[in-house]
Amino acid sequence: MPTTTPTEQRPPAAPATAPPPFVLWREVLVSYAAPAVMAGIGGFATGQQELKIAAVTTIAGTSALVAALVGARHRRRPAGSWAERGPRPLITALFGLGAAALALAVGMAGAQLLPRIPALADSPWPGRLRFDLPVSAAIAATAITWRWRGTRPRRRRAR
Hints:
By secondary structure, the chain is an all-alpha fold. It has helices at 6-9, 24-46, 49-75, 82-85, 88-113, 125-151.
């Protein structure tokens, strides 16, 4: 009867599992639905009609737009790009701050220019843009970048 060595008795190693795929349309859908629901709940709880409307327009709309733009950019990145190699928290923070800065500029311009339109002159909506756009953009860019980086295969460092 042949004898077996301890290495022959071990079960075969499980194959490495690949990270889940990054599906952009799902990410954009969640980026719209989550802030719309959360801000909408806040609007209903506090009785603020303005917040209820902003929940499905400026808040969720900005979030979905930023998620689509940032996610599409991430999907086109070549393997080994700087965004894939850098530390995940740092890259995520950079994209969140960058999106917030751009959205703040758009929000400030909109808050100044939109009240000049007669139909929007008395509306409180343009004034909300200074806050809604940067916050929504920062959250969406941060979430999308974090999720995208989680789907990238981990690279081993050479020693």
